[in-house]
């Protein structure tokens, strides 16, 4: 209810929610929008209309045109929405889980355990994120599972930091002392009383991170270590457009469609998550409200 | 203060040690034959058949236990030998050192306008809260923040290279490259713009700028967003403080209070974020350099990561950790200059 009232007052945030819902619908109805053909082994293998090297402009058969090697851009963009949701939500969910456990254990036990865990967090923070993720993906092979593992391995740390500091802050509040005086065990205190209240900042961070993780995943594909050739993945399709940025003399924008459609998809997807995250933060953090 | 700086520096060896262990563990997940590639001086060595491969695995001790191999490897690194990069076909340290000026040049040229723009836009947005400048700036930043670097970069190439032919990719044109590599041209720093000025060659200077323009615009736009947001929030908080009201009450003009009194204090949180941002940029503007084919550390790191060129990846990791620690230290040391209260505590 509070959220709806906020949206009514903030058209920009409303816009973000609407695009996000549109993406959800595209992902759900992908088989209707771009039906896979019967010979496809997996619906994520983009069908090809021949093997011509040069991209072909939009036409009734391929409404967004085709890439080099004749992958259908419309099909890739539609099924790529599912890929984006899988990677974004998958990476963030696992990262939140790991970060919460590490942060909670550090705050709960304190002392040496806390020191060691937080130094491990520091070390992971000192790793160049994209390069480390590239190395791990290159080692594990192509596909969305290796991408998810790589992005999670180097992306869980900020949740651990937030959860720890929130627990340390909330632990000293009166209602916790009250619960303790009733004889509640430490574990019960952490899981039932502290963590639920510590999750709000995590929720904001996670919402924002969903967009940026999809950006990183596409970047991996763009840099050549992400998904397999022809996999319905926006980064992959943007990578195809790279060779066709320069059109022929006299027609510099000849291959505009190879970049425009997958590029717009990533941009709008990330934008919608950022707008929703921004709205959540405004609502939950009184310091940002005006 | 000094005490604090020393403690920060003491973290460095710990981080570096853990980092080396991590990269080495990744490397050990490959088979000895795969790892052999890192030691082979040229691909021909690997074509000698099973017998010679086995001999070389023996020679380099690639079947020894984990800790012995790690000890030998870290021993080499401690004596300054970072190993051989298969990607660059030269020692890792040479490759990193020769690419560093290129990245530094790019990052500095992008960071300065980024910082100035963030201060300007962020404080304006705070002053004109919820009026049209604030709305325009908010939309501008949230768009920039959501724009994938590679899409924005490719768009730049499409407009400024394909259509207008103003800003070509690469670091220098063919003719300029010939001049720069000739013996008449002294390479003082390795940064093209500075070297061109020092050699008094304005043609080269212009050519270097032409190649820097597009990546600099890309980096600036993509990075200015988060810094502007921080500046705006911080400006809003400062404007609410009592001393701002006092200054207004005693009759100082609004502009003086906003731009002299408030903006200065609002800079503090920006310093922290800007330091982090600069460190991340120094740690390789991977995608930007790759798109514009700009031969710097970021492009090199991306290539080595994709090729699993482990000595180079570790060398890059060490470099990044050092940059990060130093940048944090610099921010900590600059802080008392911006806020004298910090020193007295």
TrEMBL record, chain A:
Please give the superkingdom of this protein's source: Bacteria
Protein name from the UniProt record = Peptide/nickel transport system permease protein
Organism, scientific name: Ensifer adhaerens
The organism's taxonomic lineage, starting at the top: Bacteria, Pseudomonadati, Pseudomonadota, Alphaproteobacteria, Hyphomicrobiales
